[in-house]
Fold:
Amino acid sequence: MTLVGSSAIAGPPYQTDDPDPTETGGLEAYAFVEGDWDASFAGSAGIEANYGASQNVQISLGLPLEIASRPLKVSRGNVELSAKWRFLNDENHGLSVATFPGVALPTAKGASGIEVLLPLWGGWKQDNLAVFGGGGRVITSVPGGRNHWVVGFAATRQVGAMNFGVEVGHSGASERGGHGLDAAGVGMTAALGGPFALVARAGPARERGTGHVFVQTFFGLQGLWGPKK
Structure:
């Protein structure tokens, strides 16, 4: 549950989240594939569901499968549970702030220990422009894991039925003896009609200490039901 791919803790297609919850009584769901591309692919595919429990509370569930190529391997991933609480919502100035704590449970084959993310996200909206960002602390009991910070910032703009965005972020080393990671990307959401939209993000990531560069991607199908977000 780091900056590198934890969709249920972020705001698809971005790795950074915004502070606004799904509208009360609404369901926001994604079917997605995300991961890192180098000489091979490593990532996950699955579904994420967000439910608006009240005006300022969202409950989220992520059910991923872990995927790797060379050789091809698909296995169950760690179930992710989280709850977003927006405690500031200033509609007059377009400002909002929320916390979105989440936990990754050791449901993957051979997994042990849990990871907890304790973040704070803020945002500003004006007409078709939105800016959001923040970060938090990842606390882990996974063997070989390391507590670390994650931060990210993004800006998006609505243009007709399309939404475009840019993002930058950083994650500390998630493993003992590992390295931090700097990442950037561009994203988009394209309405398909009805409740569905395509969402996508792609961009480079660079490992601190080694200089290793690879590409991160996210592709998904979004569905919105009930009250519109």
Notes: Confidence is low (pLDDT under 50) at residues 1-5. The domain at 7-224 is CATH 2.40.160.40 (Porin). Residues 116 and 214 are 26 Å apart (CA to CA).
